[in-house]
Design goal:
The chain has three helices and eight strands. The radius of gyration is 22 Å and the shape is globular. The protein folds into two domains: 1-34; 35-207, PEBP-like (Phosphatidylethanolamine-binding Protein, Alpha-Beta Complex). By secondary structure, the chain is an alpha+beta fold. The N and C termini lie far apart (69 Å). The longest helix is centred in the N-terminal third of the chain and has 33 residues, at 2-34. The strands form two sheets. The protein has a five-stranded antiparallel beta sheet, covered by helices on one side. Strands 1-2-5 form a three-stranded antiparallel beta sheet, with no helix packed on it.
Length: 209
Amino acid sequence: MFRRARFGAYSSRLAAVATVVAGLVAGAAKADQGGFAASSPDLPSSAFRTEFTLHAFGCSGTNVSPAVEWRNVPSGTRSFALQVRDENAAAGSPFWHWTVYNIPAKATGLARGAGNVGGSLPLPAFNGVNDFVDTNATGANGAYGGPCPPAGDKPHRYVFAVYALAVDDIDAAAGIPKTGSPDLYSFVLNKMLGDRVLGKASFTAVYGR
């Protein structure tokens, strides 16, 4: 009788713990669903098709910038910024492939090809500088430069980071020129603006050859 009572009490405690855990898991899932997030309909398997890779330095892609979308935007957002970097660049530091700043708050993403010369960025957004600047690999300074890792490397990881900002104009807010380097803008976004960065959403795609 005593053992049965102890077992019953133990079972009740287990049931209570299970209920709490289930509630925490459900709450976390709900938070994930409701959080600021970004993705690309052009990279559904988190891998680049040839269409989105570079046409230079031994790569034969068509260098079209993939579409990027975001959702669950933080309250108070007045603009967005996008930076795309190769985390596995041969130089040992990130290599910047695409940057876009002053994307208006009403935008829910960037269309395919928006990062190319003549692309349709929502005003007053502009393509910033990337690490292909002055190489003519992208057809003009700045704009989008697709993946082209060294042949034989393990697939490189390309991180797309979207920032929700409480400022209309990042250049005016930070006192930097539109021609600033990606590293300078990255410092502004990750340190200088502080709590004026309302949220950051990112996803990773891979490519190797």
